[in-house]
Amino acid sequence: MTITLSTQSPTTGDLIIPFRQTDALADQLISLAPQLGLPANVLQRDFTAGAKEVLVSYGPNGQKTSLLGLGTDPKQMDWLRTFRKFFFDQKSKLPAQLSIDLTAVDGTVVEGVVLGVRGGGYDLKLYQTDKADAPFFFSEAGALTLYVQETELATAQEALIRGEAIAQTQLQMLDLMNAPANYKNPQTLADWTVASGKQYNYTVTILDKAELERQKLGALLSVSQGSAVPPVLIIAEYKPEGIDNPRTVGLVGKGVTFDTGGISIKSSANMHLMKSDMGGAAAVLGTVEVAAKLKLPIHVIGIVPSTENSTDGRSTKPGDVITAYSGKTIEIIDTDAEGRVILADGLGYMVRNFQPEVLIDLATLTGSVIAALGYHAAGLFTSNDSLAAQLTESANQTGEQIWRLPVWDAYLEDIKSDVADVKNYSGKPLAGSISAAKFLEFFSEKHPAWAHLDIAGMAFADTEFGSQKNATGFGIRLLIDYLQRLIVEKR
């Protein structure tokens, strides 16, 4: 399906018109009523433009017009979710050609619309043998025209390019996250990144198990010991051409492709959802690809330590002491707190080999952050107020919400070990996400602009795609918006 922009007024074919609840709504509906063949009072009675409200009408010429409500003050996420739900619900009924009238709004909304439309075509039935062909609208024959004002065309074009770049990458990340462990392992992530790097001209380096052993990434290796599948460290580096001294951002993402908990094994309830424990990796790899697609004038390095956390006689055991890449020792209290352990090597490798100006790690790390924030926000941990403010601005813009939690040094007591430099788990049923963040901060080596995003409640969630939790692609839009803010700030 192709998406194009036009400044001509739509005259024929099925049409979608979004509306906001504003003082102008009544006049807008009065002017639209003759086109729909409806009395104005009936239209005003039956459509109030409430969030996700839909009214479908057939005009005198047979044209189908769908009115979509967006509520009073829709943000980008509202546009995205409204259009995603509509296109997902209506996908089997959509014609090959369709138009959306955006002439009453500014061109920036195009990004959310495009993300919603593309997302609405997602199909979770990845492995069903009787899976139907893609709906005609979402096939190569489909065509969507977005009508905008002439004065908004340039803005809309930028938003379209950005929306398309993010959407296509995000859909691939959904497939990777939703794939079960027998279809996905660390090498799968490595292969995807290598292919992406070749396509979009950025550098990819894969450290295999032998190289990990040679360079002594002991934390990552320790988590992988119980799995027959070898670990990898994925390094994806996008460096813009022709830019002198660009700002450098390092992103580190947890890439556990399946998590049993190891010796500290999880209960069987919902363990099947642990195929999703690579949400941080998806955000990091997706962000690097989108940055390369858009040719952003900023240097982005993504590092993903990737492994399974499985159980056998070789598994790391509670009480073991391991040595991380940084040379620091870790006492393993709980093998199910493995994400922070592999991130210790990811952070250490990033700091010592790339020295980024900004360092951000993302991980589906703790159930504790879900207990604190539910499924509406990721946890943000940083001692850098400026970085916190910038990330929060990006969260507010994209609707990928975050909430700052403390990283006071009082919590260092929770990771003190009697026998090693630190321990990986406090053993206490409280402040779990904070003590995990303090552990990661230790391995950031006092980086002045470090932030940790615990996305456990956001990377896998309830959506219209299925009856159980599935991937969201959380973090890519947030990080791309943040990178673009840094670029503007640099100028």
UniProtKB/TrEMBL annotation:
Q: What is its EC number?
A: 3.4.11.1, 3.4.11.10
Task: Quote a single Gene Ontology cellular component term.
Answer: cytoplasm
* GO biological process terms, semicolon-separated: proteolysis
Q: Which Gene Ontology MF annotations are present? A: manganese ion binding; metalloaminopeptidase activity
Instruction: Name the Gene3D superfamilies for this protein.
Output: Zn peptidases (3.40.630.10)
Locate the transmembrane regions by residue number: none
Q: Where does this protein chiefly localize?
A: cytoplasm
Report the catalytic activity: Release of an N-terminal amino acid, preferentially leucine, but not glutamic or aspartic acids; Release of an N-terminal amino acid, Xaa-|-Yaa-, in which Xaa is preferably Leu, but may be other amino acids including Pro although not Arg or Lys, and Yaa may be Pro. Amino acid amides and methyl esters are also readily hydrolyzed, but rates on arylamides are exceedingly low
Binding-site list for Mn(2+) 2: K254, D259, D277, E338
Entry's localization field? Cytoplasm
**SUPFAM superfamilies associated with the record:** Zn-dependent exopeptidases
Annotated protein name in UniProt: Probable cytosol aminopeptidase
